[in-house]
């Protein structure tokens, strides 16, 4: 015990010249490791003894985060078996808790600087951006499993939409589309079915995304609801025998751009009268009447209404109980807004994988919440859709 005693005496003499608590803890931890390894080996370090059962084989470095600061440990290695100091065992739980805190903060959209402050409040030293990214890579396994899970059963309704995020590529900052698919099955349950990141919303990108859903088992799609992005309509026709529904909310916003500011309320009130009809035939008749009424004063708007009629009124051929939900992409709009809120803190993503990690974790979280809520849609007409007992709308051809 001579050497430990001398070391402690030197620390006490240093007093205010150093961080005595930090140095004491470092010296004590070293002494504990030496004692435990000596017990494993059967004799002291460097001593020849017939009773020796093992010997040392160098060291491995480890940083130990404590409330008095970071201590750099040199943990002895053994030639036979392994050694891990007993006083570090409780820290394994603390480290897992730290990882969980960082992951949750990342998913919630907390900035790296705020995470750093949070870690320091827990008694640890600061955490770098690279460390946050390393810890959050553990989310990937769960996200990948979620986004590639098999899709079972029939899914009559499918919503797809995109939101744009910024990412670094080849030293440049570019805008990419993160597209999301949400479906409702014949039990009225809503689920997130897919996520993909691409440079643009070209037809080839949408087609590959929809085909990836079918490869995972997506079937029974009768109606696809989306905004009027280029390529979506053609992609739907190539992949599904289904009708395309143009989002009513986005359409209305575009239509009112053809009218003067003072006319917009009146025109909006006229157009929505078509949506209030009971049957598809009545809705088309009312739409035509409104179009003709507007043709004299706003011919461009009238032409726009003529062109959009069948796509905007497609939902009218489906069960009345479902029309409110399937007329627009509102379910996805709320989801996209939440993704935007959390990703705005990140700003610019380092790569596409980081987008998938954060957005995928959010979608996984949302999907779990949906599973414990009541059915999103009533069962009325859903079973009939899966057995083709309802009037089938004309499918889009590619």
Key traits:
398 residues, 3 domains, two-stranded antiparallel ribbon, six-stranded mixed β-sheet
Give a description of the structure:
α11 runs antiparallel to α12. The strands form two sheets. Strands 3, 4, 5, 6, 7 and 8 form a six-stranded mixed beta sheet that branches. A two-stranded antiparallel sheet has the order 1-2. It is of the alpha/beta class and 398 residues long. The N and C termini lie far apart (85 Å). The model is unreliable at 389-398 (pLDDT under 50). The chain has three domains: 2-79, no CATH class; 91-136, no CATH class; 145-386. Helices cover 50% and strands 17% of the residues. The chain contains 16 helices and eight strands.
Describe the SSE topology.
Blueprint: H1 2-14, H2 20-41, E1 56-66, E2 69-78, H3 89-107, H4 112-121, H5 129-136, H6 139-147, E3 157-169, E4 172-184, E5 190-198, H7 203-215, E6 223-226, H8 232-239, E7 243-246, H9 248-256, H10 264-275, H11 280-295, H12 299-312, H13 323-326, H14 330-346, E8 348-349, H15 352-371, H16 382-386
